[in-house]
Amino acid sequence: MSALLEVSGVSKSFDGFKAIDNLSFSVAEPELRAIIGPNGAGKTTFMDLVTGKTRPDTGSIRYGELSRDLTKLSEAQIARAGIGRKFQKPTVFEDQTVFENLSMALASPRSPWTVLTRRPSMEVRAGEVAERVGLTAHLARRAGVLSHGQKQWLEIGMLLAQEPRLLLVDEPAAGMTSAERERTTEMLVEAAKEHAVVVIEHDMEFVRRLNCRVTVLHEGRALAEGSLDHVCADPRVIDVYLGRPETEGETADA
Ligand SMILES: Nc1ncnc2c1ncn2[C@@H]1O[C@H](COP(=O)(O)OP(=O)(O)OP(=O)(O)O)[C@@H](O)[C@H]1O
């Protein structure tokens, strides 16, 4: 495993308020990483910085073998470089079928080398992606009639179809049933065998099932990093996020 993304000494202020404060963070390829932390810790801002939606005041964000500085690239260039982002709310084309949604995503691969290689047909590839996200039986259905969880899976599928190297996923479990949450963890664990996957999540059971390295953000800094058990035992993490057992247990502030 080598570092795919290397964030070094990044700070970002909004009207004098430091949302990200000298943050350093790296992710390997492949790797599954969870980011947890209290509201306002800077988790979304972190994703905004990596995807070019927000520019850092200081620091560098390097990516890939050529260590390209993402702070110099546009959002579109960053997406084309293989960084996919899933926002909290699903954004699928509700009037199109699952197959059509996946086909549209497949038609615009992010990685330049995918267009140079001979590819199986759209039907085959859409079928493969649908299987990865548990939607094989729903290919002909309109996306609008899917459950919330299925829409989230479809969007994950649309991102996977574009063959990202780094996938950023913001609170995928929100609003899902427990069965859907379980299926989603399996999906992300599977995806992280090939890609770098960074997941922001408040649901601690979900994070536990991801069984991966966890970074705790607090006031724009990485407060702790390691296994979930390791960070959960850190008194600083208990103070700012988990709360003492007699008050909140592991529920955090979801
Ligand atoms: N565009 C902006 N303008 C002003 N302040 C901002 C902006 N974006 C973020 N902030 C502030 O930066 C801080 C970090 O916000 P951010 O949304 O990154 O936190 P978060 O960890 O994602 O929180 P949550 O868990 O609630 O989503 C917050 O205090 C927020 O109000």
From TrEMBL:
SUPFAM superfamilies: P-loop containing nucleoside triphosphate hydrolases. Residues 5-244 form the ABC transporter domain. Keywords: ATP-binding, Nucleotide-binding, Transport. It comes from the Bacteria. InterPro entries: AAA+_ATPase, ABC_AA/LPS_Transport, ABC_transporter-like_ATP-bd, ABC_transptr_urea_ATP-bd_UrtD, BCA_ABC_TP_C, P-loop_NTPase. GO terms for cellular component: plasma membrane. One of its GO terms (molecular function) is ATP hydrolysis activity. This is Urea transport system ATP-binding protein. It comes from Jannaschia seohaensis.
